[in-house]
Amino acid sequence: MAQRVNRIYSSNNTNMARAATMAAAQGLPLDPSGRGSYLPSNEGRRSKRYSVNALYSMVAEQDVEVEDDLSKAQRRLRELKNKISVQSKKNFLLEKDVRFLDARIALLIQNRMALEDMKEINSALDDTVSEDYVFPEERRTQLYGNLFFLLQSEPKHIAALTRLVTLSEIDTLLQTVMFTIFGNQYESREEHLLLTMFQLVLSAQFESATESGSLLRANTPVSRMMTTYTRRGPGQAYLKKVISHEINAVLTQGDLNLEINPLKVYDDLRQDLEKQGLDPDETYPRGITMEAAMQHPQVQAIVQPRAIQLMDIADRFLFVIFDQIDQVPYGIRWICKQIRSLTKRRYPNWQEFNISSLIGGFFFLRFLNPSIVTPQAYMLVEQSPTKNPRRTLTLVAKLLQNLANKATFSKEPYMMLLNPFLERNHERINKFFSDLCEVGDFYESLEMDQYMALTKKDLSLNITLNEMYNTHALLVQHMDVLAPSKDAHLRICLDELGPPPAALPRSENHTLELPLFSRWEAPINVDLTALSGESSVTQNDILFMETKALFIQLIRSMAHFPGMNLDFVRHGHHSGESGYIIGQAGRLDLDGIADAAATSNDPVLVRKGIKVREMLRELTEAGVVDRRDRYQLMLEELGQELVHLGNIRDTVYAEIGSLEAVYKTIGDHNQYMHSQLESYKAYLQNVRSQATTGDSAGAGNVALQQSSTHKARQQVKKPAPPPSFKFTHLLLEKEGVIAESNVPDARKANIYFQIISPHPGSFVILLFFKGRESPILEMNLTLDDLLEKQQDNVQLLDLEYVQLNVGRLLNLLNRNFLRR
């Protein structure tokens, strides 16, 4: 039997490994169908082989030798998951570039950057080179492959490193950890190892915490890691599926104003009178306090029904969040479970609501609410929300956050109108957080994952040279903490690699496929009886299961044969199940299938047909199956397997549809980030041109040497007036610079703006009404302010009478001032 077991396993090594991993990871009851729903006759014999049989069932799902609808769909799904993982990393890099350039350009505008610095940041915009790169030294490739296998398979090293790096270093490390070392977002082994790393990091965070109030809320490497994790493919899929509909429902009511801040409502009442040509000061005097506005009867009459509407909208958000708890990605739920467990251990006297508050700090503060407040940044909406819906979403997010935090609105007295929402949902949110944490652990399946990984020959990472070198440098920098013992595997790897190479320019930062392997473990022959935990699995049991697996292969491979009439079909209008059926009677003819394969023109099928015919004969002679009842025992299990495969196909199709939407969303975001970088390129090109011509207005510290004669002429020459431009209200509205306007249509033709730049990067915006000498509004701002707003996803700049689109205002300023 041992020889047969080893032969079976070695013939389909990768599939069996995957099957074992899937069975363990999903916590499946190990029955013949692999799904716990089928217990046919002869239970005594079958009860001895549940575990091993489940592995064969898993193999049938992932059979690489078959080319049918299911296998094509599974291949498409794997490709889609890989594309999402790769695109997520590209988006992370683009976002990092944009953040970096935002900060650097602000310095540039403030005249604090030299020309050489400009050349350096411009190089950061160059595209990376092709990925067809082979590391020149084979031994060095092996050393790095060993190091990164160690980092991936033993997450304790990265967990320790994240506690040692600074905030300025964390983004580079996050890039490598989240999108390279554990970059395959849908592969169970990598996902489980990444979550193990999170568990270690969180554990250390709780142990070192001195103030419970700052746990998981401060801007630390740990909180950055958790936020980045939620932005991966599964998190994006959840947001798209669960809350995007409610967000868009708010956006469709663009005219619905649910502002409940009494001062803003009071000011709206004043503006309404102004639009009617009346003097508002008589009815609504200027400069009243918040308390006075809250007591104003007209304000109360407006605010109270708005508060009810707001709570209704927040209730709808809560309903879909509670109702679709099963859609929350496993990893996010598992992190919530760790927060709960660690909190109970660290603060044993805490009440349940205190623990729920910490879970809510992660689930709502880091995951859900950012997407509600800025849905355009998460590509959940096609256009940025206008003023009223944007304010409604902000207030809804406040409601949800305060509910999660178990807080009242004592700091914002006008929000106390919404306290009934908190009171009636208090118990519901506690139950939600409790249910959210009810997920199984994966430690046993991770052992299987790790064990099976050693039997694979194709473990690799798609990694850049700088990712390798930067990680190498960080490890060497903290080696004494990470690996104090001379015998530690990590120290041995680092000692053999020697000093880390310097970071390369972007143009030389090649991407390569780095093969991973472990020098300290070796693959072992798998004994299926050991895997199953059953000592009584007989040779006939193994033969039965192997025969069944081979018939599954043949049935799937021969679905297109003339006369077979074999296909995935729906049968049982009420059962909702789908599977394979053959012939009008729906009966499988096993002898006929074997003969058809053995006499086909396909040599692979011929070999399998002859083999399965012989195996069926052996089973008949052993008394396991009976030809007189048309092998009823085998038919029962085959029927269950085929129905199961049909259900798997339906599930795969549904998942493909969901992930295609996610991939499109990620792709759209990628295009948006590229457009931002293009605008930066144009801006930097302008600055370099100014530097070359000696224009100090945008060239930072760059200055051309001037002759003494020229200097003398400059001294007597009158200073030039600061650059200034005028724009009509109608023009700015047409170009989209004015996103919203409170100016009545009849007055727009008489409104114009003057923008003056007294100093490089500094602007004064003046709003004039024709016929009046003095402006009716004046605002000072710098380019830094606008860049910071853009970086923080603030879309509009409020000028009281109009709201300006930040991005388009930036373009207007660049176009008219930077070229001078």
Mean pLDDT: 76
The CATH homologous superfamily of the domain at 231-315 and 335-436:
GTPase Activation - p120gap, domain 1
- What count of helical segments does DSSP give? 34
Q: Using the coordinates above, name the CATH class of the domain at 231-315 and 335-436.
A: Mainly Alpha
Annotated CATH architecture of the domain at 231-315 and 335-436: Orthogonal Bundle
CATH names the topology of the domain at 231-315 and 335-436 as GTPase Activation - p120GAP, domain 1
Query: Which residues sit in consecutive blocks of at least 5 with pLDDT less than 50?
Result: 1-52, 110-116, 522-535, 563-585, 691-717
Instruction: Name the helicity range.
Output: 55-70%
Radius of gyration: 33 Å
- Biggest sheet architecture: 4 strands, antiparallel
Distance between the termini: 86 Å
Q: Overall 3D geometry?
A: globular
Number of strand segments: 11
Brief description of this entry?
The chain is α+β, with helices and mostly antiparallel strands.
Keywords:
alpha+beta, 3-stranded antiparallel β-sheet, disordered N terminus, GTPase Activation - p120GAP, domain 1, 34 helices, 4-stranded antiparallel β-sheet, 820 residues, globular
Describe this structure in words.
The chain is α+β, with helices and mostly antiparallel strands and 820 residues long. Among the domains are: 2-71 and 538-653, no CATH class; 231-315 and 335-436, GTPase Activation - p120gap, domain 1 (GTPase Activation - p120GAP, domain 1); 720-817, no CATH class. It is built from 34 helices and eleven strands. A four-stranded antiparallel beta sheet has the order 5-7-8-9. It has a three-stranded antiparallel beta sheet with strand order 6-11-10. A two-stranded antiparallel sheet has the order 1-2. Strand 3 (566-570) and strand 4 (578-582) form a beta hairpin. The longest helix has 62 residues, at 632-693.
